[in-house]
Amino acid sequence: MRIIKLREGFMKIFDKGTVILTVAALCVLISASAYAGLSQIKAYKEIYPDAKLKCGDCHTAEHPKKEDGQHDLNDYGKAVVKAAGAEAPKADAYKMVGKVEDFKK
């Protein structure tokens, strides 16, 4: 019975709409941080549509984590950033540098 009373108290504080809105907002924030490089992947695929790009193609670690210092760029990533200049890499930068596979040869 105590669980039911706690649940009723919780529902009095937060109505159903507030809970749903909060959960939806958290999902958006989490997914946005997880796919921070999505725009760069889309730009790469504009030029090379059949490519299967992985984090390790541009970064020194296969699954980079900023807090561990593994988010550093490898030679290909550095070349793309240099080609892009001051802005975020777009399709033109990837076209100038070439495919990941060609760069590794």
Tell me what you see in this structure:
This protein is mostly helical. The chain has two domains: 1-34; 37-97, no CATH class. It is 60% helix and 0% strand. It has helices at residues 2-13, 16-34, 38-47, 75-84, 91-97, 100-104. Helix 4 (75-84) packs across helix 5 (91-97). It is elongated, with a radius of gyration of 21 Å. The N and C termini lie far apart (68 Å).
The geometry reads as elongated
Helix content: 55-70%
Poorly predicted tracts of residues: 30-36
Compressed to H and E, one letter per element, the order equals HHHHHH
Mean residue pLDDT:
75
Q: Please, how many domains? A: 2
Q: State the major sheet.
A: none
Percentage of residues in strands = under 5%
State the total count of DSSP E strands.
0
| Secondary structure category | mainly alpha
Radius of gyration: 21 Å
End-to-end CA span: 68 Å
Q: DSSP helix count?
A: 6
